[in-house]
Structure formats: C-alpha cells, structure tokens
Specification:
WH-like_DNA-bd_sf; single chain; 5 strands; transcription; elongated; alpha+beta; 5-stranded antiparallel beta sheet; DNA binding; Globin-like; PAS-like_dom_sf; 16 helices; Beta-Lactamase; Arc Repressor Mutant, subunit A
Length: 328
C-alpha cells in the first residue's frame, strides 16, 4: 500500500503543478503553435501516467521517444537537455521518500525513451536519405527551369553534386571538395570519362561509363577513390535538365557510409542474455563504466562483452551497435 500511497501523492502534486512542468516544452520546435501545445500536453500526460503505473513498465518510454522523434527534429543533445529539465520539474517539491521511490523509475524510463527516440530517428533519417537524391534533383531541375536560385541551391546542398554537359564538367558544389578532396579548379573543364579512369577502380569503370552515356534518369551504386586514395562506396543518381537553355546532366553522389550498410538480423546474431543487457545500456548512451556499475560487473568484463557484441554484429563502433539495437 505504501507504493500506491506515494504514487497518489506524487500524482496529486504533479496535477497541482501541471503548468510549471509544462514550461520545459518551450524547447520544442514551433513552440506556441496550437498543434505543438497539444502534442506537448499529450506527451506530458503520457510520461506522468506511465511513471506512476502499477506494475511499472519502463519500455513504455520507447513509445514516448518514438513520438518525440516522429513529431519533432531534436538533436540527441537537445533531447538529453529536455529530459534533464523534465527530471528537475518532476522531482521538484517531492519529499525524500517520494524522490527515492520515483528516481529508479525515471532512470529506467528515460533510458527506454532515448532508445525509442534513436530507433525512430534513424528510421526517419534513412527514409529521408533514400528519397534525398530524387528530391534534390527535382528541386534543382525546377530551379534551373525557372532560372531562380539554381546557383544557391546547387552550392549549399549537403550532397555532392556535379553538373556536366556531354561529359565535360561545368561545376561542382562544395560537398564534392569536402568529401572527395578535389577542388573546382581541379575538376571543372575535365572530361568525366578521363576522370573515371583515374578515380574509379578498374572493375567499376565500364559500369560507370555505361551509365554516364545513358540519357535516362537513373540510380545505381558504384565506387570511386577520394583524392587521398580512400575508396568510397556511392549511390549515384543522374538526371538531364535544361539549364540556361542547354541540356545538361546533374549527378548526385551519395556516399554509402557504414550507417547504410545492411546489418544482420536478430536471429543471425544470437547474443547472450548478458550481451543483450550490455547492448541495451550501450544504446541508451551509457559509458562502459556506467554499464559496469549498473550490472554489478567489472569494467574489463563489460569491455569483453562489448567486443563480442561488435564481432557478432559485424560492426566496429558504438554508434553502429546502437543503430542495430534501435532496429531490433
């Protein structure tokens, strides 16, 4: 009965201070708009209800995290700041017994919220990335046809873009230099066919040249070398447009970094129960030391489990491992 009494006490306290707690939502984008206020009020109601539920189900935090990612584009840092402010407001005014009762629930719920947010944010990110080349090409084509903002759009996009006419490079944007290391002075005026021989692996050259000579809008995958010799896997999307009265070709080069690699399915990995626990807390953002303390095991043991997890997942970084966990 003690737990229920404390739960009721906290619920009454939060109800009396609902508006003060709600002030933390000023961090959300489009704050002040009716739809944002309604969403924030709904999220606050869910959080306070889930935290006081009996039996307590911390995994409900994932649902809240997924909703936050779906509705608002917060960085992980801003999500953490929002969570910190919420904790302060939810604990404000509670007595020692209430704080002791609530704190473990907050810790577990927040960890699940972070996992849910990361999982949903990654899904949205990959979906957006998959549509980015086509959307970018459409925007550039519309800008070119209307002779408005083409130069600004071409230069500022984060994706590497090359503009060529009959194989002769007319322009590149800053992203080409940032990712591949080549400057405009080195590439503009060059023939793409000649550059393919120097910049692409021998096994890819025929494949690339075949697509370059085609006049269809198309997407394909290939590889090339950066200026310092690093091989980069790419998704290439091409489209012919009319720019300044001339028929030219836009090429969007999207690097296929590790985050886009297909990861093994759960049934293929076969993690032990302890490895699953370590991965769970790793994905929630805990350090090796924090995981060791939480699971009451030594730091070397955590490092051993982490390496075994990396081996089974075929990854080399915490970020990749967390990405896999968010998909699970």
């Amino acid at each position: 009965m003690l737990s229920m009494n404390i739960s009721d006490q906290i619920s009454a306290h939060w109800a009396a201070h609902r508006e003060e707690i709600g002030l933390v939502w000023y961090l959300l984008p489009n704050q002040g708009q009716p739809s944002t206020n309604e969403t924030a009020a709904n999220l606050q109601q869910q959080i306070t209800s889930y935290l006081l539920m009996t039996p307590f189900a911390p995994e409900a935090g994932r649902l809240v995290g997924e909703q936050l990612a779906q509705q608002f584009h917060l960085s992980i840092e801003k999500l953490g700041y929002l969570q910190g402010l919420l904790i302060e407001q939810l604990l404000l005014g509670l007595d020692e017994a209430q704080t002791v009762w609530l704190t473990p629930r907050l810790t577990a719920f927040w960890a699940e919220m972070t996992v849910g947010y990361g999982y949903q944010a990654r899904k949205l990110y990959l979906a957006e990335q998959g549509q980015l080349p086509k959307k970018l090409l459409t925007d550039l084509q519309q800008a070119a046809e209307g002779k408005q903002h083409f130069a600004a759009l071409f230069s500022s996009t984060y994706s590497p873009v090359v503009l060529h006419e009959n194989g002769r490079i007319l322009a590149i944007n800053k992203a080409v230099t940032q990712i591949f290391g080549y400057t405009a002075d080195e590439l503009v005026g060059q023939q793409i066919q000649a550059l393919v021989s120097a910049m692409a692996p021998a096994a890819e050259q025929t494949h690339i040249l075949k697509h370059i000579t085609a006049e269809l809008t198309q997407t394909y995958q290939t590889k090339c070398f950066s200026k310092d010799g690093v091989e980069i896997a790419l998704e290439v999307t091409t489209k012919h447009i009319i720019h300044e009265g001339r028929k030219v070709c836009l090429i969007v080069l999207r690097p296929l970094t590790d985050i886009f690699k297909p990861l093994p399915e759960s049934e293929e990995v076969n993690l032990t129960s302890r490895q699953q626990e370590v991965l769970h807390y790793l994905a929630a953002g805990m350090s090796d030391k924090e995981i060791a303390t939480t699971l009451h095991i030594s730091l070397p043991t955590v490092k051993h489990h982490k390496q075994e997890i990396f081996n089974k997942l075929q990854v080399t970084t915490r970020i990749e491992a967390a990405s896999w966990a968010w998909q699970g």
